[in-house]
Amino acid sequence: MSILLHLLLLSVGSLAPAGAVTAPSDVAALAAFKAAISPASITPSSCLASWNFSSDPCRPGPSHFLCGLTCTTTGGGATATDRVTAVALDPAGYSGTLTPLLSQLSLLEHLELSDNAFHGPIPASLPSLQTLILSSNSFSGPIPSSISNLSSLEILDLSRNPLTGPIPQFWGSMSALRTLDLSFDRLYGNLPQAMPPNLVNLALRGNSLSGSIKRATFAPLRALEVVELAANRLEGKLEGWFFLLPSLQQVDLANNSFSVVEVGSPSQGQRLVAVDLGFNRIEGQLPAALAGFPALAALTLRHNRLRGTIPSEYAGAKEGVPFRRLFLDGNFLTGMVPAALLGSRELVGSLGDNCLEGCPSAAALCSPPQKPKAVCKQGYGVHGRPRWPHSYLDP
Ligand SMILES: *[C@@H]1O[C@H](CO)[C@@H](O)[C@H](O)[C@H]1NC(C)=O
Ligand SMILES: *[C@@H]1O[C@H](CO)[C@@H](O)[C@H](O)[C@H]1NC(C)=O
Ligand SMILES: *[C@@H]1O[C@H](CO)[C@@H](O)[C@H](O)[C@H]1NC(C)=O
């Protein structure tokens, strides 16, 4: 009886995927991938050092293919085959190019090689690829237009590479793309005319992008939640429609050269939580309408050229949640500080380095001290025309 059961289990076992092997075309692609990486950069303790092709990559012997691969079994019975769905390597300092044979990994969904020294062409014929994460590598030159061929791509992260040139124009066709991160590259020129239509996260910080934020580019982005464009050379007017983008939650436009900010009247459904417009050249008054965004908890407008009083809307009467972080330091704000701001226990931030009255130096919110009167006078100038102190002309 027990022998019969044993035989039965054995025969079931031989039909089950345990007998599958990795598709030969996938094995060849993986071997070519490893062969294109400088052996000197494959240290003994690294993941790639364990890729020993005397084992089957998806069904390896002990101490072979310890990491880096995810496989799935396709088909059943005698035709069961293992296919590679993900390649994700450790940050071991691998140096090399990405072999064109990677395109044989036709079920590859996820390729992640961050914090290494890969260079050369970026793969563009991986029909199943959903995630491509190549941040902190050595890819250089312009962003290749062949990337638009990756039609299943949902996440593209090419941040912290020496990629240069303008951002290409092909994004409008990439309708699966939800996250685009090209931060800390060496990109310049205007923002592209069209973005991926279903984009949720846009990160382009730390480049040299210039020009303004255009309605034709951003208005179609109904799913856009996070906009990180800090530390560029963007300029001009931020128009009233921008903060009203329907899904917008976090906006970081710090360290640019914006000069005017308009804010449209929000609806109660608006989800905006955090806005950073610090270190720009924004003139005019604090936009009172920002206080009408029901979920807005963090607002930074530090180091601009704002004048006038702090609107009463910013204090006790703010709709929805009150501000939890409010940085208005380094402007030319005048008048009395609303008592409700000083009295708030939950508020962190700074109103310092302005021209305000009633901001006791003992209050944390009032540090650093207000500007000297003479500097304040310059900010308001003769007949209301400012003569900006030197430090405000070249932020
Ligand atoms: C691969 O593994 C086999 C068997 O364990 C071993 O004999 C061989 O030296 C290994 N090859 C490399 C390149 O480490
Ligand atoms: C685009 O993808 C297809 C299929 O994945 C491939 O055959 C073709 O060579 C790719 N084109 C480029 C420019 O990479
Ligand atoms: C903006 O610039 C200031 C002053 O140069 C710097 O301290 C800060 O780290 C920068 N912030 C960003 C987000 O680049």
TrEMBL record:
Gene3D superfamilies membership: Ribonuclease Inhibitor (3.80.10.10)
Signal peptide positions on this chain: 1-20
Residue span(s) of domain Leucine-rich repeat-containing N-terminal plant-type: 24-58
Alphabetically ordered keywords of this record: Leucine-rich repeat, Receptor, Repeat, Signal
Cited InterPro entries: Leu-rich_rpt, LRR_dom_sf, LRR_N_plant-typ, RLP29
Sequence intervals crossing the membrane: none
Protein name, UniProt field: Receptor like protein 30
Species this chain originates from: Cocos nucifera (Coconut palm)
